[in-house]
Design goal:
By secondary structure, the protein is an alpha/beta fold. The protein folds into two domains: about 240 residues, 3-Layer(aba) Sandwich (Peroxisomal Thiolase, Chain A, domain 1), CATH 3.40.47; about 150 residues, Thiolase/Chalcone synthase (Peroxisomal Thiolase, Chain A, domain 1), CATH 3.40.47.10. It contains 14 helices and 15 strands.
Length: about 425
């Protein structure tokens, strides 16, 4: 994708902030992934009642005051928490940072549903008297809200965007960051994906009407990608945000470098609202590999998108077989089996959960894989227990979404 010797075009991840259903920082998240601990639990949602969900439990007051929480949104709070954590983790001298040269790029699956549902419910208690409707509704529901809340909280005066890319959005946020840094539009990008999806009853109702909402007597076993007993998606919330910089800037300030983004791709199926297309997914994977100047056998870990829906798992497996079927040293895992589907945050969290593999030589498993669907069977899938592998250098992260949007990001262990 770029000349490997052109330092000004090399883009690296230098800080990580996250909240997930099974960890509120990278160390916790990684520990629970390697230990096989699920973050899925019982949850109640309006009109539907008891469901299962991946719920985050982070300190909302760590970077915000109660007044700010009341005025803002849940996804804004997730974004503010993760962005501040990433900047702190990166060791950036925030006071001396030129805020005009900082950009915020956050992927989302949907936004505004939570606030609109809440307000409609509120006025229903007053015979639909619209004078009860909050004056905060518009700034809460505009599409740029999550990234905008970050800029207000952190005093960032550079550009901010939220990117609506369905469940490909976590990757899309990182891709936007890479592009803006290479164009010299910003010097520091705060990028990733966020989701508040569990706070809208509509997403549960829609998946239920599709027959795609997971149920299980044991919540921790409900999310079962590739397994014959899977019965749908576990909806989750969360956020995964990175500080992303040009390599020379990172080296100049002596930053620790988690990894280098060396390839990416996005494309569209152009076939169906919901059903995926393995051919277009394969095309997206191959384009990312081409841009990274890699062959399939160069990939150590494939972080799969698989959501535990039958057609989704099968179509992705077709693509993976076509690209990596002969790559015996490539390992495939899945993070949704631990936390459910975090929608806009999914791709970012799934990538970040794998990045520590560069240092600890371990590949977290796909849990709840008791009997693999023969249509999804691949020898490379790491099932139920972590796998040790020395010399891990590359991670390919798949994220695919409704309306046929596909995204792939490749991260490499940093080498001079």
């Amino acid at each position: 994708m770029t000349n490997g010797n052109d330092y000004s075009q090399r883009i690296v991840i230098t800080g990580i902030g996250l909240t997930s259903p099974n960890g509120n920082n990278l160390a916790e998240f990684r520990e629970n992934l390697l230990a096989g601990r699920s973050g899925v639990r019982p949850y109640k949602t309006r009109y539907i009642g008891d469901v299962l969900a991946g719920v985050c439990d982070f300190d909302t007051l760590k970077y915000q005051k109660r007044k700010e929480l009341r005025r803002g949104t849940r996804v804004g709070s997730i974004s503010v928490y993760c962005a501040n954590e990433a900047v702190n983790d990166a060791g950036i001298d925030w006071e001396k940072t030129d805020k005009d040269r900082v950009g915020v790029y956050l992927g989302i699956t949907e936004h505004g549903n939570v606030e609109t549902e809440n307000e409609v419910y509120e006025i229903s208690q007053f015979d639909y008297d619209t004078t009860v409707w909050t004056h905060h509704h518009n700034p809460r529901t505009v599409a740029n809200n999550p990234a905008g809340e970050v800029t207000i909280n952190m005093g960032i005066t550079g550009p901010h965007l939220t990117l609506g890319a369905a469940c490909a959005a976590g990757n899309a946020g990182l891709i936007q960051a890479v592009q803006m840094l290479r164009l010299n539009e910003v010097d520091l990008a705060i990028a990733g994906g966020v989701s508040e999806s569990i706070h809208t009853f509509g997403i549960f109702a829609a998946f239920h009407s599709q027959g795609a909402l997971a149920v299980h007597e044991d919540p921790t076993k409900a999310s079962r990608p590739f397994d014959t007993a899977r019965n749908g998606i576990v909806v989750a919330e969360g956020g995964g945000i990175c500080t992303v910089e040009r390599l020379p800037d990172a080296l100049k300030r002596g930053a620790k470098i988690y990894g280098e983004i060396i390839g990416y791709a996005m494309n569209s199926d152009a076939t169906d609202f919901v059903l995926p297309d393995s051919a277009r997914q394969e095309q997206c994977i191959r384009l990312a590999l081409k841009r990274a100047n890699l062959n399939p056998q160069d990939i150590d870990i494939v972080s799969s998108h698989a959501t535990a829906t039958e057609q989704g798992d099968i179509e992705e497996t077709k693509a993976l077989r076509n690209v990596f079927g002969q790559c015996s040293d490539t390992c495939i895992n899945n993070t949704k089996s631990f936390i459910g589907h975090a929608m806009g945050a999914a791709g970012a969290l799934e990538l970040l959960g794998n990045i520590p593999s560069f240092e600890d030589d371990a590949i977290h498993a796909t849990i709840n894989l008791d009997e693999i669907d023969p249509r999804c069977a691949m020898d490379q899938i790491v099932a139920n227990h972590p796998k040790s592998k020395t010399g891990i250098k590359t991670i390919l992260n798949n994220s695919f979404g409704m309306l046929g949007i596909n995204s792939v990001v490749i991260v490499k262990k940093y080498e001079e």
